[in-house]
């Protein structure tokens, strides 16, 4: 049973994508607020998403804020014999810096952001649980401006010793370039095909005009029969 709209969205996206990625195996996603970094049961693997984007809402003073430094911890295990896998997940909270309350609040995320984060999770699953080449991880901060310095004293993940990794400028540029190139290639191809079509049409027009001129000249030069 889902405890929040965001939790339901996470489960929905995860199950749909895993059904496509590994249809022969059965996977479950469990939200575990007590999950600890690097404290793994034998046979389990860990993946940390360090640059997710989320919105926080203070339940005390109603202050809301956007953060590009949301940390998500995953512990995952696959039983190859039973073909069953399990992922335990924890989204770290942040304190409200407006009212100074000690209550830590959860984040909410858009569905499009969750889909990209699940893609990264599945990439890690394929690498660590299946020994496959999972592909390239998506860098979610590439398409948005930096939200400013991260205030570690208000971050639950920082307080538990998780060091935030920020992608280098080169990686951000590569991610942004790859995205813009894929979007721009299709319009350029369409524009090129329109130009070729226009040139062909004018060639046909001038060829027809030349044939008409030749025909008229030949008609005027023929002798008249009385």
UniProtKB/TrEMBL annotation:
GO cellular component terms attached to this protein's record: cell surface; membrane
Signal peptide interval: none
Domain (3CxxC-type) ranges: 51-161
Highest taxon of source: Eukaryota
Main localisation: membrane
MF terms in GO: olfactory receptor binding; zinc ion binding
Membrane topology type: Single-pass membrane protein
Keywords, in A-Z order: Membrane, Metal-binding, Transmembrane, Transmembrane helix, Zinc, Zinc-finger
Compartments (UniProt record): Membrane
PANTHER family xrefs: RECEPTOR TRANSPORTING PROTEIN, RECEPTOR-TRANSPORTING PROTEIN 2
The name this protein goes by in its record: 3CxxC-type domain-containing protein
Source species of the chain: Colobus angolensis palliatus (Peters' Angolan colobus)
């Amino acid at each position: 049973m889902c405890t929040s709209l965001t939790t339901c969205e996470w489960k929905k996206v995860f199950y749909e994508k895993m059904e496509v990625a590994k249809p022969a195996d059965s996977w479950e996603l469990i939200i575990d607020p007590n999950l600890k970094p690097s404290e793994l049961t034998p046979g389990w693997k860990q993946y940390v998403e360090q640059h997710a984007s989320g919105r926080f809402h203070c339940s005390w003073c109603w202050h809301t804020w956007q953060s590009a430094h949301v940390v998500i911890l995953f512990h995952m295990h696959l039983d190859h014999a039973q073909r069953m896998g399990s992922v335990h997940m924890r989204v770290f909270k942040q304190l409200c810096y407006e009212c100074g309350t000690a209550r830590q609040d959860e984040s909410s995320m858009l569905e499009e952001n969750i889909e990209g984060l699940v893609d990264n999770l599945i990439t890690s699953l394929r690498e660590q649980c299946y020994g496959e080449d999972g592909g390239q991880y998506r860098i979610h901060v590439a398409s948005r401006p930096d939200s400013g310095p991260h205030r570690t004293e208000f971050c639950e993940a920082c307080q538990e010793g998780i060091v935030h990794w920020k992608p280098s400028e080169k990686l951000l540029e590569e991610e942004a370039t790859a995205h813009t190139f894929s979007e721009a290639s299709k319009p350029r191809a369409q524009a090129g095909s329109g130009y070729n079509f226009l040139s062909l049409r004018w060639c046909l027009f001038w060829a027809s005009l030349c044939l008409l001129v030749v025909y008229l000249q030949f008609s005027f030069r023929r002798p008249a029969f009385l």
